[in-house]
């Protein structure tokens, strides 16, 4: 994947994730879309920054080839990332939405579970659509010759 495509992939992922999270939270809470929009943009921004910081630190402790990391190391990474993210985002959600920490925690857990499933589906679909487009381009190039 080129750098431009990686940026496209990341932006598309985030735009859809934020939009779908706002819709879900609108359905399950009493908060207005405007409040949820700002909150989810803040959460997504925190998640991207935390992702860079956490993974830089994690890579210092778990050296070697990334593709050879054990299941245990990957579980530690996910739990560490998500746990740290909750520490940052729960107070922000509570403050921005004027709710208690418990309500913000429940909402954040819901978003986290949704994003986990969404990431799986999004990347599966993106990879398969990308492969189909590349095959189509390759076929068109062969036919044009």
Automatic annotation (TrEMBL):
Annotated keywords: Membrane, Transmembrane, Transmembrane helix
Stretches assigned to the Chlorhexidine efflux transporter domain: 2-62, 69-131
TM regions (residue ranges): 7-28, 40-58, 79-98, 104-126
InterPro entries on file: BTP_bacteria, PACE
Origin superkingdom: Bacteria
Protein name: Chlorhexidine efflux transporter domain-containing protein
Source organism: Photobacterium sanctipauli
């Amino acid at each position: 994947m080129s750098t431009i495509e990686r940026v496209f992939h990341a932006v598309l992922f985030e735009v859809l994730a934020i939009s779908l999270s706002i819709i879900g939270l609108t359905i399950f809470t009493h908060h207005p879309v405007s409040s949820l929009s700002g909150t989810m943009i803040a959460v997504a921004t925190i998640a991207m920054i935390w992702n860079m910081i956490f993974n830089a630190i994690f890579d210092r402790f778990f050296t070697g080839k990334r593709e050879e990391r054990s299941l245990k190391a990957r579980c530690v990474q996910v739990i560490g990332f998500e746990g740290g993210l909750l520490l940052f985002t729960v107070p922000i959600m509570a403050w921005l939405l004027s709710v208690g920490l418990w309500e913000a925690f429940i909402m954040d857990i819901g978003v986290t579970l949704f994003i986990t499933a969404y990431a799986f589906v999004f990347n599966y679909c993106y990879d398969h659509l990308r492969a189909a487009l590349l095959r189509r381009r390759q076929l068109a190039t062969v036919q044009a010759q």
